[in-house]
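Suppose a colleague, Dr. K., hands you the sequence of a protein chain of 590 amino acids and asks what its three-dimensional shape might be. Before reaching for any lab equipment, you can write down a predicted structure in token form. Begin with the sequence itself:
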Amino acid sequence: MTQETTRVGERPGTLDAQGVLTWARRCVERLAERRDEINSLNVFPVPDSDTGTNLLYTMRAALDRAEGEDAWISEGGGIAGAREIALALGRGAVHGARGNSGVILSQVLRAVGEAATFTVVDAATYRRALRTAVTLVDHAISDPVEGTIITVLREAAGAASRSTAATLVEIARVAADAAAEALEKTTAQLAVLRNAGVVDAGGRGLLILLDTMVEVLSGEIPERRVYLAPTGSSGSARPVDGTDTLGGTSTPGGPDGAAGCDSGSSLAETRYEVMYALTHSDDARADELRSVLRTLGDSVAVVGDGGVGDQARWSVHVHTDEIGPAIESALPLGRIAEIRVTDMLDPVGEGRTARVGSPGEIERGGDPDHPSGTPTRKVVSIVGSGPLGELFTDSGAVSVDPGTNGDGVIDAVLAVDADEVVVLPNGFLSRNQISSLDAGLRDLGRHALILPTASVVQGLSALAVHDESTTLSLDGFGMADAAAATRHGYLVRAEQDALTLVGRCTEGDLLGVIGHDVALIDQDLVGSVCAMIDMMLAAGGELVTVLFGADYDEAATEKVLENLRHRHPGVEVVGYGAGPGTVLAHVGVE
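The predicted structure, expressed as tokens, is then:
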């Protein structure tokens, strides 16, 4: 099978930063290809068919974070090292982990970063990474059970450590082959898998990641068995007819074949899966939380991203019947966010997940692949709280504060319950965040449009023509057209001395930015915004919208509006208070 050329490290037998990124991208592709297969193998604690989805979501979150890190370093004139990219993969996975399998995957990726040298991943790094992953998972998971993804990971790490192979590709093959052998044995190790005649679903997903490393290094895809659980049953595995699209061939199911649970820990029967993020904590308090959660349920996992101080973050996971205590037990131990509660005992395709966005706001969404309820459409605006946010909410939009910590802004958008979603980024989301949001919306089965609104004034223009009675495509077209017809600018204070397109500015100067370029430097609040509007109206315009920040009192606001009415009598002018913020004034011209 012909493979595309993959960049590897400059030294033979190593993988550099771009090679690590290539591996991560290929993992996303392979998990996407195998998502349905892995989902079909998920028979415990209920056949909710989400292990493949959870692994894919987690890996996408990891990749988005790593690509953002690479872009940030490149923009600064630097060259990312393998360690930096691998650590970013781990942080992204911890922040975006879904399900117990995603939590465990996050620790595997974190281990690669902690084991890597700055520039490359080599054979010694890979051995060390697998050993470290076992240590991290054993520490993070309460009551680990054999016959799960943990077993597959442990066997892969052990084989790599015992091997005398000298090159990275050889070690990668040894680890992947050991994982494949361990996966075959999971059926006999766990009663629930043996009764269903399947292998562990999470272990199948891990094998895909290990095989993908071999693929990236050698250009060859290891041949593996492919198993699917029988439709409408949790009985013997059913092989895929023909050739595996990853290069393997299918084989009959039965005792040696097929799937399992999205869990690496105890098998108690509990109803709810509770997950949330923990910050402003430390390892000791994370250990304390883990101990408390063990008294409240099973499948307990509290995993960190390896960060330091306030930058550290833990992903918390537990299966429990006591939702309140499971969440409240973390309150004295740090700050919690992004709470998700899933009812695991709902019928397949009807499981409900409650997500907490902002305090007091709980939105409900259906299974990622089967959204339920009456078709609805909501506009979600990324905008600060206060008067500016109220402008959007008063017009019927859902406002999400861009200042939400970490990936919380993405989770808050995903928590909005609607079959159709129109997102107004308003210049607050990076390209990587938009990619992550798009992936999340697709995973949830939402029909969504993310419009290119580069400022809040463009967002307001788009919202003004929103028409829920028409189709999503026509509505989105009209909103995008209105946004594109709005020229935008804003006024800020210079944070330091700098050279701009219109000359040198000093700290504290007022900078008028039109589009993306500094167009004027001034010191007067009223004069600067008036001059900026004059420049914007030079190309014509019928309506000017000014959003005044807290620096403009009533007198200053009236001076600006009076000046505009006098200088541009044929132009309609409207002004609103925007409240405090780093932007002193927003201007839109239509």
